[in-house]
UniProtKB/TrEMBL annotation:
Region: Disordered, residue numbers: 1-20
Source species: Adineta ricciae
Lineage: Eukaryota, Metazoa, Spiralia, Gnathifera, Rotifera
Matching Gene3D superfamilies: 3.40.1280.10, Nucleic acid-binding proteins
Family from the record: Belongs to the class IV-like SAM-binding methyltransferase superfamily.
InterPro entries: Alpha/beta_knot_MTases, NA-bd_OB-fold, Put_MeTrfase-C9orf114-like, tRNA_m1G_MTases_N
Protein name: RNA methyltransferase-like protein
A Pfam family hit: Methyltrn_RNA_3
């Protein structure tokens, strides 16, 4: 038998052996041989695991593409009168939630609420206008949950907000998620060094310190500066979101525009809500400005109506940076055009006037249904025409 226990198994003493010393020596050698074999096996597994991790890291670095943002936007416009088709405040609240969910699912960047009639009477003893109620509910739904108490105190308009299904959007981050951007609110406390401000980003004891002094109570978009976007995406691929990753008491950060996550990292960062008095201002007051070379305007405007051209006849859309899809209310877009003082027509405002549900079985299609139908039908054609 070799003196090295890792080479061969020790020989068992004969059954006729009566010397206890031989058995004791055999057991010690057998134990040493088993331990050596186990260490050798573990070393081999560690080497294999290390080689796999090294290969994965090398492959990810060699195949990683440059981070590309998203410069194009998609907007939808709808009349506030659709809330009058709901018979109670509970149903009106739930209707607004359906619209917000549809916008989030299809990455809509802007929701425009316009007036298509002059009705101002109270419905179901509701003292608020339809546009006011719809806008407030959509803004509440878009706000991350940990910020709602700061910006939406208890109020009559949000009496049934508990009926709203959550958006679960990318900017509604959980506490255990690894993050690069977060929405937050500025705090009144000043850092110990007296520079900048503290921002509460919904991480309990963890706060973000920014380099600018801002008044308290502002909603801001924060980008952390202790990591780069490249490090974030590499770590995101390897990390497990179920593990707690936010254990720091202080994270350095900077204030960025709410559009920065979309422009630089292609994150969908929720929608903004805008009110328009007429259908003309819906189209003309575009908030997206690409610079001096590209003035703020919607370069693709689509109207939807059962009287429009069937979407099947449109093979492709012209190239665009900012698209707008306009939906009608209970009486269609024709009612909105009838309210225009200068008699503007659909041909003057829209590049396309489409029927996205030809041969419909029901006499009417509700606006919340039309949003889902239209975005589903046009999604592929829109994405192939974007200028990014």
């Amino acid at each position: 038998m070799s003196d090295d226990p890792s080479i061969s198994r020790p020989v068992r003493p004969a059954n006729s052996a009566v010397n206890s010393t031989d058995w004791r020596r055999y057991k010690e050698q057998l134990r040493a041989w088993k331990n050596a074999r186990l260490r050798k096996q573990l070393d081999a597994e560690q080497v294999e695991t290390f080689e796999q991790e090294t290969t994965t890291t090398t492959t990810s670095k060699s195949t990683s593409q440059p981070i590309k943002g998203r410069s194009y936007t998609l907007s939808i416009a709808l009349p506030a009168s659709i809330l009058r088709n709901a018979q109670s405040n509970e149903l009106r609240t739930y209707l607004a939630g359906q619209i917000g969910r549809a916008a989030c699912v299809f990455n809509i960047d802007e929701i425009i609420v316009f007036n298509d009639d002059e009705t101002v009477e109270e419905v179901d003893n509701n003292p608020f206008s339809a546009s006011e109620q719809l806008i407030r509910l959509l803004e509440y739904l878009e706000c991350p949950q940990y910020l709602r108490k700061q910006f939406f105190p208890r109020q009559k308009l949000l009496e049934y907000a508990g009926l709203l299904n959550p958006l679960d959007a990318p900017h509604h981050l959980r506490t255990n998620e690894f993050w690069l951007y977060r929405e937050g609110v500025t705090l009144p406390l000043r850092p110990a060094d007296g520079k900048g401000s503290w921002v509460d980003v919904g991480l309990y004891e963890t706060k973000v310190q920014i380099d600018k002094r801002l008044q308290q109570g502002l909603r801001v978009t924060v980008r952390r500066t202790d990591i780069t976007p490249e490090e974030y995406f590499q770590t995101k691929e390897l990390s497990n979101d179920t593990q707690q990753t936010n254990k720091k008491k202080r994270i350095p950060g900077e204030i960025v525009s709410p559009s920065t996550p979309r422009l630089e990292s292609a994150f969908y960062w929720g929608y903004q809500v805008r009110k328009a008095e007429t259908i003309r201002t819906v189209v003309e007051d575009c908030p997206f400005d690409d610079g001096d070379s590209h003035p703020a305007k919607y370069d693709l405007v689509i109207g939807t109506s059962e009287r429009g051209t069937s979407y099947d006849k449109i093979t492709e859309f012209p190239r665009f940076r900012h698209a707008l899809i306009v939906f009608g209310g209970l009486q269609g877009l024709e009612k909105a055009f009838a309210q225009e003082e200068d008699s503007v027509t659909a041909e003057q405002l829209f590049h396309f006037y489409l029927n996205t549900c030809p041969q419909q079985g029901s006499r009417t299609i509700r606006t919340e249904e039309a949003i889902l139908i239209t975005l589903s039908c046009l999604r592929d054609k829109l994405l192939t025409a974007v200028i990014n």
